[in-house]
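Structure ticket #2291
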Amino acid sequence: MHKSAARSKVVVMGKGSGKSKTAKRDAQQMQRARNVWLSLLATMTGIGGLMYLLDSTPGTRADGVTLPALVAAAGPSSLESVFRLPADMKKNRWKSIVIHHTGSPYATADSLEDQARQMKLKGLGYHFVIGNGNGLDDGELHVGYRWVQQLPGAHSAGKEADWYNNNALGICLVGNGDRGTFTDGQVRRLMQLVDALCDELDIPRENVKLHSQIAPTSSPGRFFPAAQFSERLSGK
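Resolution: structure written out below.
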C-alpha cells in the first residue's frame, strides 16, 4: 500500500513536470521584464532621491548615503536629494553649522564609522563628510545617518559642546588642514552644501562656525581658507 502510494506520487509529479518548466520559464521572463523596467526607471530618475540611493547604490551603508563627486560640479540644485528624507526634516531644530576636518589624509565612510565606534560613539558623529580624493572621491559627499534620521551629532567639543551637538550640523572635510590645503572640489562642495542648508533650514550665515571658533582645537586647520569662506558667507 505504501509502495503503491509512492508510485502514484511519482507519476503525478511526472505529469506536472511540463507545467513546472513552463511556470519556470514564465517566472524567468517576468524577472527579466522587471529588471528592464528597473533599469529604465533608474535611467529616467538620474541621481534621484535619497531613498533610491539608499536602496540601490552598491557599497552604500544602510545608515548613510554617498552622493558622487560628479554632483559637486553640477551646482547647488544637485543637492536637492539631500532634503528628501525618510523622516520629517526638523527645520526648527538646526540653528548652526560647524566645520571640521578629519585630521588624516585618507578616509572613507566606513573608516570614519569604525573610528567613531572605537571612540564608543553609536556611529559616525558628523552629519556630512566631503572627500578629497583619498578614500572618498574629490568633492564626494557622504550624507551620514544622523542627517538621514535627523539625529543629534557627536562632533563638537568645548564648553558649549552639548548645545552644538544637539543644535548644529557637523560637516567634516577629509584631510589635515594643519598640514596642507583642501582641494578646490572640497571647498566648492562645502560652499554649495552650506548655502543649501542655510537656505533650506533658515540658518543665519553668522551661525556657521569653524570648530576652532567654539572649542580648543585647530580644526579645520590653519590652511582652511577661512577668509574666502567668510567672505562668501557674508556676501549672501
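Closing remark: Residues 1-24, 29-62, 70-77 have pLDDT under 50 and may be disordered.
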